Amino acid sequence: MTKEEMQEIKMSFGRCLTHGDLFQEFYNIFLKSDPCLAPMFANTDFAKQKALLKQGLNLALMYADGNIIGQSGLRKIRKSHAQNDLNIAPHLYPLWVNSFLSAIQKMDPDMTPQLLAKWRGALTAAVDYIKDGYLES
Ligand code: HEM
């Protein structure tokens, strides 16, 4: 990921956040993408969860950028999502990425296929790191 590509992604993220409720849009799409998901969030306070995920997204982008704060933040998410904690099955992560890409496609008025591919690259790097911690304790 070049500096310019990361800058483009951050600008796009900014446009999404000013355009509407990106994380509400994301959860609407994501929770419908597999029947096992809605029950996982049955007792979730979505006002809090959306703020946590926004923070998580910032960490994920920092991680994709090679930033050390992004690495330590994502290490915590990797631990909480592992088998012995939230137990998030690895096959769910592609649904997460695709749902997020659908949400930003709706929210960023300047989205292009090229920009979407850059987003996919950055998110996949971060999500793979979380997913690869599944069996760790
Ligand atoms: C397969 C995809 C995922 C599923 C099913 C999932 C599910 C969950 C659940 C059930 C919670 C707990 C909610 C609660 O407290 O009620 C949670 C928390 C959280 N998730 Fe995820 N998650 C996924 C992917 C991700 C990814 C990719 C990120 C970051 C980019 C992320 C960031 C967070 C954060 C920051 C929290 C709150 C703090 C924590 O528990 O670590 N999640 N997630």
Structural class: mainly alpha
On the 0 to 100 scale, the average pLDDT is 97
Bound molecules: protoporphyrin IX containing FE
Q: Distance N terminus to C terminus? A: 30 Å
CATH topology: Globin-like
Total beta strands: 0
Shape: globular
Largest sheet: none
Secondary-structure element order, as H and E?
A: HHHHHHH
Helical amount: over 70%
The CATH architecture can be named as Orthogonal Bundle
Sheet-strand content, in percent, reads: under 5%
Count of discrete structural domains: 1
Per CATH, the class reads Mainly Alpha
**Over the alpha carbons, how many angstroms does the gyration radius reach?**
14 Å
Helix count from the secondary structure assignment: 7
CATH H level, superfamily name: Globins
- Uncertain runs are none
Brief descriptors of the model:
71% helix; binds protoporphyrin IX containing FE; single chain; 7 helices; mainly alpha
